[in-house]
Design brief:
Elements (H helix, E strand, L loop, with lengths): L1 E2 H8 L3 H9 L7 E2 L6 E3 L2 H14 L4 H9 L4 H36 L11 E5 L2 E10 L5 H14 L3 E3 L4 E3 L9 E10 L8 E6 L2 E10 L6 H14 L1 E3 L3 E7 L11 E10 L11
Antiparallel strand pairs: 1-3, 2-3, 4-10, 5-8, 5-9, 6-8, 7-8, 7-12, 10-13, 11-13, 12-13
Length: about 280
């Protein structure tokens, strides 16, 4: 048997931490001298400590490790835990890489003298369109693709010939982090059936739309909305309806997000002041 001090030196774990392991039931001493209160550990527990340290370095919490140890070191259970942790780490790396890309884009954006000057904003009228419509509350804007997949699959199964333009319409009065009211529409030729979720409707004409084209990732569309806000404020326009977006190029056609092309349309009316924020990115 090894005294706690000797065990600490051999495992390179502090006495304070070994006592904490005991308190939480992670690694109780093999024996305690009832007269002196000294803690003693077995040589076999050295391997257990090394395993605990390794699992901690991999990001496992004490409760997870303790649960596994209570199962007498079940190898199958450990393999499952390691596989789950591997997936979690891979997801974290992906998220961090996305953050790194965004930092790079922000640096590039901030080095430009005036990002709002990258856009040409024009006024145009938009005619009415007969469309297939699917409207739903989705968890967040980045879940919009699920709606497009559903309505596109419906059109394909029913042999519907799709035409341009195809709109996404954002019905919320302001920007929302979650529970977003989004409608996707497909302009089509001829007749089309309906379902419980997908309906045929006429998308109303808009006499006056402020329109711009955004080239680049969806995540950078906030600067496009900023440009629209600056233009509207400077020219005395206010919003008069829901924002529309036409995705001319996206992940379905381009490998590089820098090549995405989105058309943003905002119904406007003269003589109203407003603020505008990103609806889709």
């Amino acid at each position: 048997m090894l005294k706690i001090g000797d065990f600490s030196r051999l495992t390179r774990v502090s006495i304070r931490m070994l006592r904490y392991y005991d308190e939480i039931g992670l690694l109780p001493p093999a024996a305690i001298d009832q007269s002196s209160g000294y803690r003693y550990y077995s040589a076999g527990q050295i391997e257990t400590v090394h395993l605990i340290k390794s699992l901690r370095e991999m990001g496992f919490g004490f409760p997870e490790i303790a649960e596994w140890l209570k199962e007498s070191g079940n190898t199958r259970r450990l393999l499952d835990l390691l596989d789950m942790r591997k997936q979690e780490i891979a997801e974290t790396i992906e998220q961090e890489n996305e953050k790194l890309l965004r930092v790079g884009r922000m640096l590039e954006h901030l080095t430009k003298e005036d990002s709002t000057m990258d856009y040409t904003i024009a006024l145009k009228s938009v005619p009415a369109y007969r469309v297939l419509s699917l409207r739903d509350i989705i968890p967040a804007y980045n879940a919009e693709g699920v709606l497009w997949e559903e309505i596109s699959r419906f059109a394909q199964v029913n042999g519907i010939k799709m035409l341009q333009p195809c709109y996404a319409i954002y019905h919320d009065q302001g920007y929302k982090e979650q529970d977003v009211d989004v409608e996707v529409t497909l302009h089509f030729e001829g007749e089309a059936p309906e379902s419980e979720r997908i309906h045929v409707k006429e998308l109303e004409a808009e006499p006056q739309m402020a329109v711009l084209f955004h080239s680049g990732p969806f995540e950078e569309m906030s600067k496009a909305y900023q440009a629209l806000g600056v233009w509207m404020s400077g020219n005395g326009y206010g919003m008069a309806g829901a924002i529309r977006a036409i995705y001319h190029k996206g992940p379905w056609s381009e490998k590089n997000p820098a090549d995405y092309l989105t058309e943003i349309q905002v119904p406007v009316v003269k003589g109203e002041s407003t603020s505008i924020g990103p609806a889709a990115g």
